[in-house]
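Entry:
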Amino acid sequence: MGRYNEIGLTRSLSPEGKQGKRLYKTVKYPDIPLSISDIYVYAEESDRYDQLAQTYYGNSSLWWIISCANSSFSQNSYFPPLGVQIRIPQNIGRIQTEYYRLNNRNEL
């Protein structure tokens, strides 16, 4: 799934000004406001954010939208907590546009 494919790279600088290690740039994610079009589901045992994104958006790489929309849950896992209600935003075009703006990228 290439989770890091779209994240830019940079290089650290040594004290002498030479290029050092390759590093991933920091990614900024937009705030995702509530919307009347949002869908709510309850997390089941086998649910993962990427699978939910594939089901609801047809694109597993948009997992971050669902994760960010549910920021009260741990952000260090692909798995939502079992049995909790998950918000699945439906205005993904607007969310993606804001993501590209925040990260100084052109839309794909």
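The domain at 30-102 is CATH 3.10.350 (Membrane-bound Lytic Murein Transglycosylase D; Chain A).
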